[in-house]
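Question thread 4412

I'm putting together a teaching handout and wanted feedback from people who do this every day. The idea is simple: show students a protein as raw sequence, then show them the structure tokens that encode its fold, then repeat with a second protein so they can compare. Below is the first pair exactly as I plan to print it.
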Amino acid sequence: METEYIKKTGLERQKEVLIEALERAAKENGLFLNTNYKQQPHFYNKELQITPVNSLMMAMHSDNGNFKSNAYTTFQNLQANNAAIRRGQKGVPFIWSNLNEYVEIANPENKITKDSFNKLSEEDKGRYRVNPKENVFTLFNLDQTTLPFVHKDSYKTHINDTGQTAPHDEKELRIDINKYIQKMRENLLPIRRDGIGVAHYDANRDLIHIPAQKEFDTYPEYVQAVTREIVRATGVPQRLNREGTMSSDKEKQAREGLVEDLVSAHKLLEFGLPSKLKKTTIENVPSIIKHIKETPNYTENLFRDINRAVGMMKKAEKGEKIKVNERETVELLNVNSQEQAQRNTQENQVSKAVSFEQITILKDDNEKWTLVARPNEQKPFAIHPSKQDISMYFDSLKNPNKEEGVSIRTELAQKYYGLSLQHPELKVDIFNTGATQENIEKIDRVNVFRTKDQKNMIIAYVDGKALQPIELNKSLYQRFWLTDNRSAYKVALAASLYAETLNNIKKEGTKQAQEVEQTATKEQSKQSEVSHDTAEKNIPPIMEQYKALKKNYSDALLLFRKGNYYIAYSDDAVTLSKKLDLEIKTEKNHYENEKTPLRSASFPASSLDGNLPKLIRSGSRVAICTPNEEEQKIPKPSRQDPPKEQEQKESIVSRPSMHR
């Protein structure tokens, strides 16, 4: 019970240190560890091995307390040096596994020491297993003790050698890092230079692509980006088989991202370099902290994965070849429950190479080559490939063996599909035309066609009239066929290409609206002179007509044509406003009845073709009416049921009672 209590309290205290470090990094734009370039965590005046998780805990505790170094000591060591812990200081837990005891598998009560185990024959050793016991010690940073005052000279020397003011040999550091990357390349997996601008792991070919250092703002960012992908490669099914590496589950992906950030941070600690959290990890910090606090075994499994990943990388650094398990073998490992078996099946499905409906490379609006591919039953994605891959793509088009050419292009698409999933920030939006919604709504319809002389053209219709056709360049024409919604894209494209023309239409419409308003004001003043009875109540004649029509057609929405506008009054104005998101105008000098001010809502006549189908689809029956003062026949509302969307367009054009 005592051991379990110590383990629990030690783990809980480690959770607190980790949570504080994550919260601090989230507030500081991802800056996570060792921003002051301190040497890696170590014991003061002692050479003791430190596990990866304990090393991270010591570094996080040091940064949380803003201490000058990553040097730590124990209470016993302080006593031996006639020093003490300063009042109110909180140490960091150091969990150490004692592996000096073995138990017999068939009889756990039979325990022997490690020395006794080593004396057994190989056959007898198979009857025993190690019985680890975890001990928890509390460590204190030197700045939490009285050592800086009791042993001033030795403390100052140690800080100068290992702290934030320690000298750094930049040339030697870069040599060490290049050796580290070379060891990973020789013993773990292939690592190649790439011109994409971001480090990424290619799961299909089991290799890492790394960009030139100049693609990064700082050298530590470059080293961490490369290390993250190395860590990711250790977690794939054929190696350590971590949950999140091949999973589509967002929670598992977030946990895997945290593993990659923490393991890479540990590696940069060894080099005395600072590290950061990825943007996605920063976004997931609240969820991660919740799991640390509430999800059973979440933190234990996280720490286990960190130690295992670092362990594999250390083996490769020492020159040991890391053997890759066959996929079939990996699938059989650790399947001790139905849940685990289901997880392996899901991971295999995700790792299968996706097939593509379309693959091409075209130029974007900035004249930059862009790979665009449409995976089966998915939306297309676009990304900027490397120069080598651009050349490979165009060479594949010239390949006399068509099947081989298709295979090359598919491999490229699979590579960048995987990259886009790992780094969604690399995707580019080539279907954004920049058109305004206002101009889009002015367009009746758009046609894209090819002429006899093989020119690709686009033509837009506004207010029933065709505008001058515009020739599309090859890139825009390709995008039209690649988009997942051609109807919407061609209208948006037309709104962008015809922007100047559509903007002029807007100016003319504004001028006409002003003229209509002036005319309406004059007509209203004339009406008040003609009808004395109505004038006394300030009720315009249009309301008498509105009320008369409503007696016979109470369920119809009445739209009155005035000049270049359609206007709804009274309760119909409220209905029209809600369905088309229009402003309701209230007139101070005119009334619907003796108490209610006149309400109205209107839209330009040019918008009728777009607005009428919306009204009908929403369940409204619409009647287009002509005011009495214009001495035109008032059409009766249609008694037909609302037609389907395609039929609506035709009925609007052919119905004789409809005026546009």
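The second pair follows. I'd like the answer to focus on this one:
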Amino acid sequence: MSLRKKEGDEQAMASLQMDQDTARRLFAAGGVLLLLDLPKQSEFGVDCNAWTIGPKFKGLKMIPPGLHLIYVSAASKEGHLAPRVAFFHNFREKEVLVKKWDSKNEELIAEDDLEIVNRFRLNLLNLDPFLAPYPFQNHRRWYSLSYDLNEQLVGRLQPANKLLSSQAEFISKEFDELGESSMKVDRQHPTRIRYSDKQGLPILLYKEGTEVRFTSIPTPRDDVCSIAERTERGADSSYALQSVLASFQNPNEILGELQFAFICFLLVHMYEGFEQWKLLIHLLCNCLKDLEKNERLFLDFIMVLHYQLKFVPKELFVDIVSKNNFLSVELANFFDIVNECERCPVLKEKARKFHCFLIKNYRWDFKVDDDYKPVIVDSEQHHLS
């Protein structure tokens, strides 16, 4: 087995070692991932760690029971890396999970034949030299990013095919409706059917089964209400938050989705994850009425965001967020709202500490210009003058 460090902090390779008690416990109860036929020089990652694999690599052993993210970027013969493909899996004690890389279709295939899986299980002793130990010393970092996630919530959010990809799979609208006949040009079909939007661009749809099923965030324009109500809902996300929370079994599942979106963006390199993360941040940072009612949720929200920001290199948020002044503006609104809530002293104190942490570590300016404050412009207003 050979692994070469690809991502992670300076402790990444040291984390391949662990104390003897932990090693014995994980050896006895830990899960095993067999990842077969993945080309050498491919990227392989689990949770917060990624490596370039060698020719002898066949998988991972001593995986702590619980939810984990596995991801790969297969290398071509020329050494070029394919888009990252990932999946979540909730490992049970002593579970053996077998995945094979299909080089023809460039996809991971699960081995579902229990007899074949059992053969691998019986042969684990011979496979052991080709299996890397789970980097347990970094497990806390992964837990800090995923503790509100569970198997049920992942099942709700992940694509129907259970695979996440850094490169979205699209098909044209005409192919979706007509199949391969949309490509046919003959006497009966002298021209190809093409659908386009107002800008003349082709209309693209997600390939069936590949779209992440993020929760839809309602907007004021979605509601049938007066202009005054629409403007109020544009400035206060409380109504939208209650609508979203009603779709979950418990309130903290919205924080689980916040973690899911962040993980998709940061580790799977999915832009859609970043967009959903921003929508959820905006939703949670602009609730004027529901602070006291949902104080526990907002206390937990601060912790989730705190761990996310600690994990990400400061330079990343400078490049991605601060140029558009997104996160500092949203948090400035949040801190102002919390500061005005007289009945939430615990939340106020926690928000104050988080505010100090951000100023100290990121030197962010939390002054909000009027240009960034929420404004709703309704088309009906143009007909009122």
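Top answer:
Good format. For the second protein you could add a caption like this: The first helix runs from residue 20 to 29. Residues 42 and 74 are 5 Å apart (CA to CA).
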